[in-house]
Design a protein that fits this description.
Layout lengths: L5 E9 L6 E11 L10 E10 L4 E9 L5 E3 L4 E3 L4 E7 L8 E6 L5
Antiparallel strand pairs: 1-4, 2-3, 2-7, 5-6, 7-8
Length: 109
């Protein structure tokens, strides 16, 4: 991931019921082994999805490198740490509702 890049994250929403419904598709990022104190998972995007009975929709989120950054006061700049990040997508922030994966940023941005 370059500092100006965006990478897609895909979430599939399905309505298995016989009634119209809506779902709030949510995207979270976790910062494994960060050198600064950060949230366990931080909301980075969401989309309200209208679903007809039996309908499935794909929801695309773009995750920009700058969304991973924190502000370092000593260096007076935004930093994206070289570490393993967790990405979680689902209808809520509850761990049991989320699909998760990880990716690694190898160099400080």
């Amino acid at each position: 991931m370059r500092s100006e890049s965006t990478d897609p994250v895909v979430r599939i929403c399905s309505n298995q019921s016989s009634v119209v419904g809506e779902e709030a598709a949510q995207l979270y990022v976790g910062y494994n082994d960060s050198r600064v104190e950060r949230a366990v998972k931080e909301l980075k995007g969401f989309s309200k999805v209208h679903l007809e009975p039996g309908q499935t929709k794909r929801v695309d989120f773009l995750l920009a490198a700058k969304q991973l950054a924190y502000y370092d006061e000593q260096q007076a700049r935004w930093i994206v740490e070289p570490l393993t990040y967790s990405v979680h997508a689902g209808p809520s922030s509850k761990t049991e509702d989320l699909l998760s994966t990880k990716f690694r940023v190898r160099a400080k941005l």
